[in-house]
Amino acid sequence: MFLFGAGLFTYYAASAPRITHSALTSDNSTKFYDANGTVISRLGSQNRDYVKSNKIPRTLKRAVVSIEDRRFYKHHGVDPIRIVGAAVSNLTGSSLGLQGGSTLTQQLVKLSVFSTAASDRTLKRKAQEAWLAIKVENRYSKSQILEFYINKVYMGNGVYGMQTAAEYYYNKTLEHLTLPEFALLAGMPQSPTLYNPYKYPQYATKRRDEVLDAMVKTKAITQQQAQNAKNTSVKSHLSSTHSKAQTSVKTSKYIDSYLKQTIEELEEKGYKPNRGLKVYTNLNMSAQKKLYQVSNNDPTIAYPNNRFQVGATVVNVNNGRVVAMQGGRKTKVAFGLNRAVQTGRSSGSTAKPIMDYGPAIQYLKYPTYQPVKDTPYVYPGTDKSVYDFDNKYQGTITMRKALVESRNIPAIRTLENVGVPKATTFLKNLGMSFSKPLEIQNGIGLYISSEQLAASYAAFSNGGTYYKPYLISKIVQPNGVTHKYHKKGKRAMSPATAFMITNMLKGVMTSTDGSGTAAKVSGLYEAGKTGTTQYPDDYLNKVPAMSTMDSWFSGYTKNYSLAVWTGYDHQFKANSYVTSAQTTIAQQIYKNVMGYISENKPNSDWTQPSDVVATNRGGQTEYYVAGYPGTVTDNSSNQTTSGYTTQSGSSSSSAVVTQPKENESSSSSESTSGTSESTPSEQKPSGDGGNSGSGTDSSTSSSTDTGDNGGGTTDNSGNTTDNGDNNTQ
């Protein structure tokens, strides 16, 4: 066993990476690159002052050695006694957290050439770490090694090295610190976030006191000195300003939200961002700057005030790469709320293609001319009615007309025919999972993010394949090991479903009665959907008529999918409603950004799949899945109201296919006024025949509080499974 172990160690050591003086003295900053390989940010590199050994106070050196490696001056890089002692302490539970198996020199090596990812915690890595530690000990003095370590460690808040930490936390240089301050800094590298004295003073105090106790054991200080230091509050003399150290990340106003999400994705992969990595992202800087400019300073968009917010995501429809992301507007808070990935706001009628009509085509073989009923409807088992934007009923109309005009009742009836379980499966195939079971009300509103919405609509664009959205394409570790990332597509729906939904969604932007005409980019092949959410009944009298809480637009071409949310962070505060005219702002953002990023890109229409058949209905080209030219019986619940007498049916998801009658076409019956006790939940585009495109639609029935629409919330990713493969090269 000894010979085997020695041989294995020798084998691993022979393949160990080189460790240079530059690596030992570097600031360990992580660099982020855009899709073109241009550096867009350096994490922490600007927040370090290097201090030479002769300028490091003896008390700090003794504090670091006492807490990190008591036998530092006795071993030669690896300490067998320390390893055995740490193992015994861990087994008996007697350790106070002061002992670990790695020496201070090994920690320096880890910070200089290895990552902290879980995948790197292997026997090979530990063997190489030990071998390099021995080499470092043979090449440098103990004083130099301690100097390297004190200048390299991460101290939280984007600060590297203890000299800069002294200036950040106390506005003093190291030579002017007191014993309790030295102890705090010496203990912070173990967990810089947890031991932040500003945010977690209780944990910082405990850690500082552990350092003081360790110093007593090594006879660096007396018990009385330790006690006096412990009597000092950990918050004493903390600086209220940080003139020396800057923000946690050197970032620009353009990429703040994108970079924040990139760091979260990096950490999800098991990496710490302060480890000298090279992180290559999918960011298209040109698209990102345009999205920022349109969201903040576009003179053609009449933003009501600086509190009005935006959350938007641009995704490449053919691979899931997130190429741009905007998490807010008119905010100076670095790494603040990223509204592009928040899931606390209902998506409104943008849910209809992915929860109602998409599943209807996929599972029930609805044709685009499927007759759907816009007649009085009450949610089964309740007394809550659903209303449309004009508070009228149109009788039996086609699915195409219902989707283009974003009428609520036909959408809910369609979902009832499909069945919520099948609709939930359809959403799962689009990467969405929910903490609570969905309900019938969610057919006109889902709690999802702009990132999730853009990724789901991308599947309509590319013919039915879902790609989980992702920001990082490659990570290069300090030792040169490279990890490349991409997402494998997953079939979410048939090409027929994707094509037929896309064909109908074109009308949302081109039809005179479409709800999204303000988003149309002239000459561009595109499709999209509007969505708004209405205030609950008990709040309607506090806001102007036709006001909404949220306004969305999600659209796509064959290249990109862009989803935009607009509204206020606190929609129930005074003057925090979205007026009817302001609901088109989301469409205007889409139009300006999509028009820009589509320049110099192929502009082609979608190709009709071989299993989709075109037919003429009343002068309108309609489509059906080959073999299913008939229409499906509507088995949704029906009511007798306002002169409408319709047969009652079950809410089963079964369907009966019948042949269409001679007079069936895309035309609708005469609109008939209905009665309502509350404000209608959707608005039709205003202006001459809807051409102005200033209208909206809404996500929920007027009798339902959209803040709790019966559907669960989603996590930030909304994904049930990670469909991507991580390929290591």
Protein architecture, described:
The structure is a single chain. Among the domains are: 48-231, Penicillin binding protein transpeptidase fold, CATH 1.10.3810; 316-474 and 484-598, 3-Layer(aba) Sandwich (Beta-lactamase). The protein has 20 helices and 23 strands. A hairpin with a 5-residue loop joins strand 1 and strand 2 (39-43). Helix 3 (58-68) crosses helix 9 (179-187), helix 3 packs across helix 10 and helix 14 crosses helix 19 (495-510). Residues 94-99, 244-251 and 639-729 have low confidence and may be disordered.
Quick structural summary:
With 729 residues, the protein is an alpha+beta fold.
How confident is the prediction overall: mean pLDDT?
83
Give the class-level CATH name of the domain at 316-474 and 484-598: Alpha Beta
- The secondary structure category is alpha+beta
Quick one: biggest sheet? 6 strands, mixed
- Which assembly state applies to the chains in this document? single chain
Domain Penicillin-binding protein transpeptidase: 311-594
GO molecular function, one term: penicillin binding
Biased composition (Low complexity): 635-654, 665-682, 694-707, 714-729
Region (Disordered): 224-246, 626-729
